[in-house]
Structures are given as C-alpha cells and as structure tokens.
Amino acid sequence: MLYDEFIGRVQSRARLGTSADAVRATRATLEVLGQRLFGGEAKDLADKLPQEVGYYLRQAETSERFGLDEFFQRVSEREAVDLPVAVHHARAVVSVLRDAVSLSEIADVWANFRRTTRHCSSRAAKRSGKDVRSKE
Q: pLDDT higher for 37 or 25?
C-alpha cells in the first residue's frame, strides 16, 4: 500500500474532512502505538508500511507499558482532540493498518499489546490489593 492510499483510507474511514486531518490522526495513533511496542516490534511493523507512515512508529525513544485507556488518552492529547474523537480516529487508523500488513504481523502486534496490557492490569491490581482474577 502506498502512502496516499493509506492516508486516503484513514480519511474515508474516520470521515475526516482533509488529508491533513488524516495525517494528524495517523501520526498520533502510530506514535503512541510505537511507544507501546517492545522487542523491535515497532521497527518490524514500520518496515512493512509506506516509509512516511512507518516513520511515525519509529519516533518512540523507549517502550512503555500502559493499557488501552491510556493508549486512547495519549492519542487524544497528541492529536489535540476530545477522547471520543481520538478513539474513533485511532480505530480507523488501526483498521487501515490491518489492511496494510500481513495477518501474522498484526497478530504479533496485538500479542505484544495484550501481554503488556495484562501486565499493567496485574500491577494496578496488586497496588490496589485486588485479585485480578476476581469477577467483582
């Protein structure tokens, strides 16, 4: 997939008015996603995308563990839009990302995301004294 096609699909799926808005949503989502990926996963994913899109994944200097709520909050702050808008935009970007790379690459990304999200939930539960396995 080429850069213009990637951005065009984001613009269409997120129902954005301009390609500049689609670039802003793509940049915010992928920069935050790059912060969440460990073990060279961001670079591996970036290598399979148009160079201009992959660039955003490579911007994180370090990887961090944080959950999905924090992911969307960071996208919201980076894109400078309200949280519900950021969630909608991030989902559109991720849907185009799924179109752009192989199923195995997406599986690697989400496996990484689930592992670190589970780790965050476990740490938070330990701090609060709750058992993460309980169904409260």
A: 25
Residue 15 burial (CB count, 10 A): 10
Distance of alpha carbon 46 from alpha carbon 40, whole angstroms:
10
- What's at 18, amino acid-wise? T
Q: Is the pLDDT of residue 136 over 90?
A: no
Sign of CA dihedral 26, 62, 46, 56: positive
Contacts 24+ apart (CB under 8 A), 126-134: none
Could you give phi then psi for residue 38, rounded to 5 degrees? Answer: -120, 165
Tens digit of pLDDT for each residue in 65-77?
Answer: 888 899 999 999 9
On whether the pTM is more than 0.90, the answer is no
Q: Are 60 and 11 in contact (CB under 8 A)?
A: no
Q: Is residue 136 part of a domain?
A: no
Residue 35 lies in a domain: yes
How far apart (Å, rounded) are the C-alpha atoms in residues 88 and 14?
Answer: 7
Q: What token pair was written down for 7? A: 């951005």
User: 36 pLDDT exceeds 70?
Assistant: yes
Domain count along the chain: 1
